[in-house]
Design a protein that fits this description.
Elements (H helix, E strand, L loop, with lengths): L1 H20 L23 E5 L17 E10 L5 E13 L5 H5 L10 H4 E7 L12 E6 L5 E9 L4 E10 L11 E12 L3 E4 L3 E2 L5 E5 L1 H4 L6 E6 L9 E5 L4 E4 L2 E4 L17 E5 L6 E8 L1
Antiparallel strand pairs: 1-2, 2-7, 3-6, 3-8, 4-5, 4-7, 9-17, 10-17, 11-16, 12-17, 13-16, 14-15
């Protein structure tokens, strides 16, 4: 009986010891993250005009043989990337009366003018800002009367990027008197919608004298052709380059009498047609520029 009591006491003591162990704490520390918040970005389209151009056109008096152009600058002054589109509408032709030479040329007695049918226009977007109509940059060419419509996905504009929209016009010298005193008007409405885009910055391109270089991204190309490009100056000759070309199927360039057509480049690199791989190629202006290309893909 005495032995049993001792054993019971030992068991109780052991249990008490184990229970007491739970009173001890491990090392610990706490930190608090304060002031967490979400902030919405902004999408803000600013419409301006290039030097020598105006936001609202008022061209005249026009005559056969006249040519001209106007450049609108659509800029994203918000903080998130936007997709630029615009609509041309309300094309209206007025006769503004008929004089004797106009009637003799076959004008009827209606108040509907003929100028829009004889005014040839080219509407295009200069995605890379080089002043040259590259593949995919011409949006419309024809008479003013046929220009109405919506032009979607014209350019992807990250924060602070802009796109020049150019309208060129001309009147053939053989038009004659039928457009005398006529006027033609139209509205153009620009819009910017939120979108996502992949922005790729190239390595530094040390082009060398009369050299060519370029950049592309195969993975980004699987989502669509390159959309637009900016040149970032990292050398001693800011802003200097001779040619910047969107290198996509159909593009070509002539160098020293030899024409290179996509996918082949002037420096020997061949783009992968299976994707198809797309990008931009650039030529310096003979002063050994060091540049970077910033490319935008869908």
């Amino acid at each position: 009986m005495q032995k049993k009591i001792l054993v019971s006491m030992m068991v109780i003591g052991l249990v008490a010891t184990l229970a007491g162990a739970g009173l001890y704490a491990y090392f610990s520390d706490t930190e608090t993250s304060t002031g967490n918040k979400f902030t919405a970005g902004t999408l803000d389209l600013e419409l301006g005009a290039a030097e020598g151009s105006v936001v609202k056109l008022d061209v005249g008096p026009m005559a056969p043989g006249d040519i001209g152009s106007n450049t609108w600058i659509a800029k994203n002054v918000g903080s998130i990337t936007g997709n630029l589109s615009f609509t041309v509408s309300s094309i209206t032709n007025l006769d503004n009366g008929q004089n004797e030479p106009e009637l003799a040329a076959g004008d009827d007695a209606s108040d509907v003018g003929e100028l829009g049918g004889y005014l040839y226009v080219v509407l295009w977007v200069d995605l890379d800002g080089d002043g040259v109509k590259d593949v995919g940059e011409v949006l419309y060419s024809g008479t003013l009367n046929g220009m109405a419509g919506t032009y979607s996905n014209v350019a992807i504009l990250p924060k602070e990027w802009s796109a020049p929209i150019i309208l060129e016009w001309s009147i053939d010298t053989g038009v004659g008197n039928i457009i005398q005193s006529d006027s033609a008007s139209f509205d153009i409405t620009f819009s910017l919608e939120q979108t996502r885009a992949t922005i790729i910055e190239s390595h530094v391109l040390n082009l060398g004298s009369t050299g060519w270089g370029g950049w592309s991204d195969k993975e980004a190309s699987t989502h669509g052709w390159v959309l637009n490009c900016k040149v970032k100056n990292v050398g001693t000759c800011p802003g200097d380059y001779a040619q910047l070309i969107r290198w996509v199927p159909g593009a070509n360039v002539t160098v020293g009498g030899t024409t290179y057509t996509y996918p082949h480049t002037p420096w020997g690199y061949t783009y992968d047609q299976g994707i198809p791989e797309t990008g931009y190629i650039i030529q310096n202006d003979d002063d050994s520029d060091s540049l970077q290309l910033i490319l935008v893909y869908p």
